[in-house]
Every structure is written in structure tokens, then in C-alpha cells.
Amino acid sequence: MEIVPLAIPDVLLIRPRVHGDERGFFVEVWQQERYAAAGMGPFVQLNHSRSATGILRGLHFQWERPQGKLVRLVAGRIFDVAVDLRPESPSFGQWVGHTLDAASQEQLWIPPRFAHGFCVLEGPADFEYLCTQPFLAHADAGIRWNDPRLGVEWPLTDPLLSHRDQASPLLHEVEDQLRQRWTL
Q1: What is the DSSP string of 125-182?
Q2: What is the CB neighbour count within 10 angstroms for residue 43?
Q3: What is the CATH number of domain 2-182?
Q4: Residues catalogued as catalytic
Q5: Average pLDDT in the chain
Q6: Reduced 3-state DSSP string for 25-47
Q7: In degrees, to the nearest 5, what angle opens at C-alpha 61 toward C-alphas 44 and 143?
Q8: CA atoms of 140 and 94, how far apart (whole Å)
Q9: Which pLDDT belongs to residue 184?
């Protein structure tokens, strides 16, 4: 596999080897030793979501036991985004995005203490992600997808959003709390 750091170097693009011929393909999606050697994992939970074209989910994070996520697309095409919420980081409040599609088999590593979101460019999009921590409903949080301070360049102009994602706070509204809870 090839591992490529993105503009925020802790966010990694993973290009696994795909072995294919006229019969189909085989890809090793995750291998504990190899991914651990690259600083990913250990993983405790696997999630699968399906979303239609035009849906935007995010930007989500977890206050307690922040999750690292290894994300991949099984069907469709999405634009995936990670926002650095680490108060001590020089890239705090910056984002990086990458288009994932099922054909390329690429994956993204989103480290703990990053907000994560995606929008569906071609659906249905079947999205799988391994998590380093279990989901904690009481600690679930988000930042508004169109926060002008973040300036995420979403490729959709009028996405379909949940009520929760529409009402998420702006980064400046949770910044003090991030600094109190997450400063190392």
C-alpha cells in the first residue's frame, strides 16, 4: 500500500494494492500490523452508512474518547473532509478534503481530535469506517458545515442536511471548550 500525507500531514491518503482482472478484484482493506506501523488504530468499531446524492453529513467529532477513523467508500463517490480541532496544532481550524470513489479503493485516515464530514457526489454512497473508540451518544458533537472561518470548499451548493447538522455551532462557539478539554 502507498501512504500519502495530505496538506495537514496527520491526515493520510491510503492507496491499497488492488489485484484485478476480468473476473473482478481483490483488495486488502485493512491489515493490523501494516496499519499500526503507520500510526493507525487499534480499531474497536466498524460503521457502515448509506447516503443519497446531494446529502452532506458533518462536521462531526466526539468530545470524550475522540475517534480516529479509517474511512473508505464501497459504492458511489464522495468529497470527504477533515478539520483539525487540536488546539496545540499549527493547523488548528484548517481543513483538508479528498474525493473518494469506490473504483479507486482509496482510504483516508482521520486522526482523533479532527472533525469529519462528507458530501455525496454520486449515490447511493456506501461508506465504511473503522473507529479507534466506540461511539458515545452523550459526547457526540459537531461544527457547522459552512462555518465561514473554516471556509470548506464543498462541491455542492445546496446540500441536504439533517436538522442537527444545520444547527451545529460555529468553531468560535466551541473553541474555548476545545482548548480546555483537548490541550495537551
Answers
A1: EEEEEEESS---GGGEEE--TT-TTT----S-SS-B--HHHHHPPPHHHHHHHHHHHH
A2: 19
A3: 2.60.120.10
A4: 60, 129
A5: 93
A6: EEECCCCHHHHHHCCCCCCCEEE
A7: 165
A8: 21
A9: 61
The reply to whether the predicted model has a pTM over 0.85 is yes
Residue extents of the structural domains in the chain: 2-182
CA proximity to 83, closest of 64, 58, 54, 63:
58
Alpha-carbon distances, residue 165 vs 7, 25, 34, 36, 117 (angstroms):
25, 37, 35, 32, 10
Alpha carbon distance 1, 29 (integer Å) = 10
E strands, 8-113, in order: 12-15, 18-21, 24-27, 45-51, 56-62, 69-84, 95-101, 107-110
- pLDDT for 69-87, tens place per residue? 999 999 999 999 999 999 9
Quote the longest CA-to-CA distance of the chain: 55
Residues belonging to the chain: 184
Per the listing, cell 444547527 goes with 167
Amino acid at 73: L
Q: Which residues partner with 113 through β-bridges?
A: none
- Residue 43 and residue 89 in contact, taking contact as beta carbons nearer than 8 Å: no
Rounded to whole angstroms, how far apart are CA atoms 178 and 98?
A: 25
Mean pLDDT per 10-residue interval, the chain, length 184 residues: 92 85 79 87 93 97 96 96 96 97 94 97 94 95 97 95 96 93 76
